[in-house]
Fold FMN hydroxy acid dehydrogenase domain-containing protein.
Amino acid sequence: MLEYLEGGAGQEATLDRERKAFAEWRAMPFTLSDEACRDVSVKILGRSASLPLALAPTGLNGIFMRNADIALAQGAAEAGVPFIQSTMSNDRMEDVAAVPGLRHWWQLYVFGGEEIWQELVDRADRAGCEALVLTSNAQIFGQREWDERNRTASGFPNLPALTDAARHPRWLVRTLSRGLPEFSNVIDFVPKDKRSFFDSANWIREQMPKSLAWDDLARIRERWRKPLFLKGVLNLKDVSRAIEHGVDGVILGGHGGRQADWAVSALDILPRARELSGDDIALYISGGIRRGSDILKARALGADAVLTGRATLYGLCAFGAAGVSRAIELLQSEMVNELGQYGVSNLDALSPDLFVREDRLPL
């Protein structure tokens, strides 16, 4: 399970780059500045958020704990930030939508016939989801070697993987005592003879159209009239195309380093993407966010907000919904502290001039 949470694709070069990109930027703090009142709150889609953060869509959270998606939603609601629920989540979107105070967004994978994505989009609308996030870069799965090491040719866990699972009885009881999780939001689309956990996962993966294109985005835009984000963008030309197709926001990122190996990180292209997009769309980044200082760097370089997946999943695995809230609280407190260290009082005071790349340090 740890490899599923932490692993990337191929040599994990993109996963590694996502962290190194943040490490390459150094602050040039101001001094003798008024730091008495520091504020990291923002507006996300016109509504107040405690910090510029949304919980990234992550699938198959049910292997970490039962009702994990509801716990993530509860933690996000407590912290005052949006939760983006994945198509491949294990709790029904209607049950997640019932979490009090939640800002509920829906992440869409396109697979199978058009009737599937249309039904998912309509359900998200009926459930009151605030925004739709189309993931565009996962129609072909990355080469996840850690996953291949742990499975047989048919996709089932091999003996070493089963042996390792048996060494964690508390996890087995807490998570699998009532069986393996199911992909609750799409299971009705799966043929009845393929609805077991592994068979359904394989079937859904096989139904991912390799021909997903900009025309598909246009049809989704036409059907969904609320805010629409395109997620998985790492090419500047695609930022421009997304704007032309009427999206409300672009999320730069490489799927947490789990898709293309040796790709750039979102932070690498963020400043140029901001120049291209201007104020026409919301611009978010995903990948590599582990500390509050990462969020400040992203904001300074042009991001309106960031997505984090792993940081809050660590909290989930430790203490459920309370752990998710605590992870977000830590990110927020780190941001507030670092603002003081930088000599600025709020996020609007951040700018690229406050940071310098290591390879351009002033002499």
